[in-house]
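Quick illustration, no need to memorize.
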Amino acid sequence: MSLGPLDLACLLAFFAVVVGVSLIKSRRRKDSAGYFLAGRGLTWPLIGLSIVAANISTEQLVGMAGQGAGTVGLAVSAWQLTGAIGIVVIAFTLLPRFLRAGIYTMPEFLEYRYNPAARAIMATYTTIIYVAVNMAAVLYAGGLTLNKLFGVELTTAIWLIGAVAAVYTTWGGLLACAWADLFQGAALLIGGLLTMALGFHAVGGVQDFFAHNADRLHVFLPAQHPDLPWTGVLAGMWIPIVYYCGLNQFIVQRTLAARSLAHGQLGITFAAALWLLIPFAIVIPGIIARQLYGDQLATADEAYPTLFRNLIPPGLRGFMFAAIAGAVVSTLASLLNSAATIFTMDLFHRHWAPQASQKTLVWMGRSLTLVFVIVGCMIAPALDNPRFGGVFNFIQQFQGYIWTGTVAAFLYGFGVPRAPAAAGVAALLAGPAIYGLMQWRLPQVHFLLQVAMTLVLLIVLMTVITLARPLREPRVIPTNTEMDLRSSPAARLAGVLVIAAVIAFFIVFR
């Protein structure tokens, strides 16, 4: 597949605007708040589109569409749809607590609630997972897309993507990412919906698509289904949703940088509403690819690139490629910024250089951005091994090592004010160990059910520790007096509408 002059002009113009605007808007960010949290001045449109752009990348375009083309079908949409409900709930429960504390990172909150050890543990394994799992998967999926579309050698494509993302992230931090996401998030959704429309036309219309794929258009699969049983969805999926939407620096960093609580809540509900488009922009195109080109797919992960290569006409390829490339770069840049923020603020500044100047912190963040992208580029080619079961499954399964301990530490800490520091530290240390043991000894049990069982065991462990050594008085969390913490009635109404829309989707495609 080749790009014509018009396609190349569109592609170059898109990235010139994205990089140019992000660099201009993020200039003069000299202190850590300016670099890592955009000066705490993000408004709700930037927050909403930035969350979408950070969340949706080629691990969805490749991985989620691949699951749609594979054995899961429309049911893979449950991740995004339950996420839409989860992030709305978090906007009115956890977000006010975090903004009131005025924190930079999620591990920082654990120090206020428990102790410095809890903060260091979470910071360490979050950084490892971001770089070795999330970042590597995004780079691999982006490189695979370039490889299948244009024949670019996989490793070369991975390093090319990493270099582009590192440029504006290193320069401008979170604000550069947010402004780039404004364009890239919109382009991604428009491009995905356009692909769906072209796919419907290719299969003979919407009615023919539904008739041909009736058995694949269900959001609940049998309990014995190996990839996404309904029991796992109901029992275990809420745990990663709470982590991903409410405790994950990668997503939450945008809301921590909100101008006010109202802007944070409006931004989150805006993102949740846009997430409702993902089944149509990504999953259904994957199912269409199976219908049209099923005999040409060596693996299910090739579904979206194959659809792109065969359906997108000259003249639109430049825009579509810009949307896909922008999605990769956007997510990668967000991961780089979040990993650099956590390592700089929670490990370097807190434990190794507490007297470091603002200039030193910013330069440490920039240096770590470059280091992390190099490490991610070195790991990513290994994911081409079929034993990982597809890039989307790889991300979800390996993140299970940090989901349960983090969710247990935060939720138990909120719900049981007298839980001691030992309880939080025990959850953070035992969570990965118990989940890893289940991965080894119970491979026949779906990983979402393993996650649910792990959380139950952690709650029991924390309860035993709390009963044995409860705090005499609940710990006092700092209060950020500069933040406007008035809630948003408009966001509350929008959140109710989003939840109603998700329930309707589940009913129609049950």
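The chain has one domain: 5-382+392-508.
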